[in-house]
Amino acid sequence: MKEFKAQSKKLLDLVVNSIYVNREIFLRELISNASDALDKRRFMSLTDSSLDADFGIELKTDKAARTLTVSDNGVGMNEKDLEDNLGVIAASGTEAFKKEQGKTDEQLIGQFGVGFYSSFMVAEKVTVISRKVGETKAYKWESNGVDGYEISPADRAEIGTDIIVKLKPDGDGDNYSEYLGDYTLKTLVKKYSDYIRYPIRMLEEKKADNGGDASVYELTVLNSMTPVWKKKKSELGETELDEFYKHNFRDYRAPLHNISTRVEGAVDYTALMFVPSEPSYDYYTKDYKRGLSLYCNGVMVMEKCAELVPEYLGFVRGIVDTPDLALNISRETLQHDRRLVAIANGLEKKILAEFDKLLKNDREKYEKIFTQFGKAIKFGAYDNFGANKDKLKDLLLYRSDADKKLITFKEYAEKLDKDAPVLYACGETAEKISMLPQLEGARESGKDVLYFTDPVDEFIARMLENYDGHKFENIADGTKESKPSAEGHEKLLERIQNSLGKKAKVAATDKLKSYPVCLAAKGDVSLEMERIMQAMGGNGVKAERVLQVNLEHPVIANMETMTDDAFNDTVTVLYNEALIAEGYKTEPEFLTALNKLLSGARSAKQTKPTATAAKKSCHATSKKPTATDKTKSNGDEK
Ligand code: ADP
Asked: Which of 55, 82, 116 most suits a substitution to test ligand 1, by most atoms within 8 Å of the C-beta?
């Protein structure tokens, strides 16, 4: 019995004893090794045709013996190879190992990409029987992964290697027996090794055709061998990409769009990316794991490599295949890998360029994508202090009040006179915004307004400051608009202000038509921002509210002659009307004030139930108030 080298032993300890979450990768590692051995033999066969063979990998299970065997007819190993390759862990690895104390087991195992040793996560014993190319003798290497290993002569009729994994007993929630099941093995091969260039075969149990109990076995190939991303467009079946997407990313719906790219340069890579039909159910939660699957020459290295896509494009799924990264590179090391950063930058550019192309050439599709993932793109424009705002601003779509469809800032700005502002209105939904009183003025003067329905929209506008020199302007911003003359109405405005108190400043406006009042904000904090900040727990942030009054409106004109009581109730009702229009909750005093005003109106009817009164109450609701109406209501209030 030979002992493992000191550091190797330490690492093996970790492998055997850690509850490594991703145990199943042992099969990927063994298949990858087999594939490498086949590569070597195939390469030799180019110059020595006697080495040619029907290259392949085979999986065999023996339920009684609890063994899973991975066999290949690759280059094989002799006694010395077994000793050198399987007795130690690569020297460079051991160096790194010394430096990396203090890491968790999982980090360490991940870091070394333990390859062959990962089989000890599931095995109580591993036996390797191998015969090397050009040799007649075969050897057996055997180990329980703890005490050491033994090498002895063995028999093997053909060149190649068998790795016989004797599974640990089940128990304690561990189900090692699953690796004896056809279904699990098939699934694992599909998941990790589908694109291995050699056929991975397995004797699969099939029910006999005659319906009897006897089983028949059939040798089936489990992997598809050619990566779809390596196929030419002309070789791809119509739905092959869709099927690939559905299978790999567990989505029963076809993707909205696929993007493929092949780059040769400082780093070579091929990428195949998909925009799903809609965000996955957990997309906007912290549970969502973004990332593209990373492959190295057709072998999956990492399932969701987050470093490959920026957070705001986290909805994009797909794969990246590069020959330039080592198969056993760990997540930790990867994060700081310059090549990976280069790939990620290239992919981000590619995706944005593709979106831009769609925006120009397939608007319908882009709108679909934006409807599903616009929030994420907007977040990208705002995030990181707007670091990406310039590359994303032309990909944003907003509903236009005038056009009743989604348009870009650019399309909006094209309609503007020089120095005219980009007008926007904030609200929860397009429907609610379209009913905002403030829109009336803009509509009458033929100005378009963009609907900002996401909380982040106004923050983006503030960050951009202007689009092509056109400043962004909230139509509910009381600071910017021109003030109509309040001549002759100063007293009235003052009276409203006194009644309203500190709730809001009172100012005249000419942007309203059919509404008597609306709410606006002055200064840096808009109403929308105040709401967002408060939702985020920032209670200190307050918008400076302005109650804008339409002096032309009959309701306001009516107020000139009201008694204090009726006047105060009317101010309360009007202020609450403005709150409602902006989507706020009403004040507690609102209903009392409203009821008082309503009962006043009803008592008018009750005292004089005549034809004239009915006629007059009609007048009261019409737009033109008459002197009689005013006196009448005043009289009733008393
Ligand atoms: P890695 O594959 O990263 O080098 P492993 O621990 O998985 O590390 O394997 C160590 C070495 O053992 C391989 O480099 C290879 O030389 C040899 N080896 C493993 N499996 C096989 C196999 N099926 N056929 C031939 N050689 C193998």
From this structure: 116
Alpha carbon 633 to chain centroid, angstroms: 59
Nearest CA to ligand 1 atom 22: 34
Contacts of 271 (CB under 8 A, 6+ apart): 229, 259, 260, 261, 262, 263, 292, 318, 319, 320, 321, 343, 347, 350
Distance of CA 26 from the midpoint of ligand 1 (Å): 13
**pLDDT (0 to 100) of residue 453:** 93
Instruction: Output the CA 34–ligand 1 centroid distance in Å.
Output: 8
Contact between 276 and 251 under an 8 Å Cβ cutoff? The reply is yes
Number of domains comprising the chain: 3
Q: Give the model's pLDDT for residue 92.
A: 35
What is each CA distance from 287 to 283, 290, 405, in whole angstroms? 8, 10, 34
The answer to whether residues 599 and 556 belong to one domain is yes
DSSP assignment of 376-443, as one string? Answer: HHHHHHHHHHHTTHHHHGGG--EEETTTSSEE-HHHHHHTSPTT--EEEEE-SSHHHHHT-TTHHHHH
Q: Which residues span the domain enclosing 164? A: 6-221
35 CA distance to ligand 1 centroid (A)? 10
| Domain identity same for 184 and 69 | yes
Task: Identify the CATH number of the domain in which residue 589 sits.
Answer: 1.20.120.790
Kindly report the pTM of this predicted structure: 0.63
Q: Pick from 338, 359, 380: which residue ends a domain?
A: 359
pLDDT, position 529 = 78
Atom of ligand 1 nearest to the CA of 89: 6
Contact 135, 154 (CB under 8 A): no
Best CA proximity match to 369, nearest among 351, 393, 382 = 351
Whole-number pLDDT of residue 610: 43
Determine the Cα–Cα distance for residues 347 and 309; give it in Å rounded to an integer.
Answer: 7
Residue 510, class by beta-carbon neighbours within 10 Å (0-12 exposed, 13-18 middle, 19+ buried)? Answer: middle
Ligand 1 nearest atom to the CA of residue 40, by list position: 25
Grouping H, G, I as helix, E, B as strand and the rest as coil, residue 167 is strand
Max intra-chain CA distance, the chain: 121
Are both 11 and 114 inside the same structural domain?
yes
Q: Are the C-beta atoms of residues 164 and 180 closer than 8 Å to each other?
A: no
Same domain flag for 150 and 207: yes
* 10-residue stretch averages of pLDDT, the chain, 638 residues long: 71 64 82 90 89 95 96 97 77 42 52 72 94 96 88 96 97 90 92 84 79 78 85 73 79 90 91 94 84 84 88 95 74 77 95 97 97 94 89 97 96 94 93 91 93 92 93 84 76 95 92 90 82 71 89 92 93 95 90 91 45 41 40 38
359, 379, 414: which is the final residue of a domain? 359
Neighbour order of strands in the sheet with 160-167: 149-154, 138-143, 123-131, 160-167, 67-72, 57-62, 200-207, 215-221
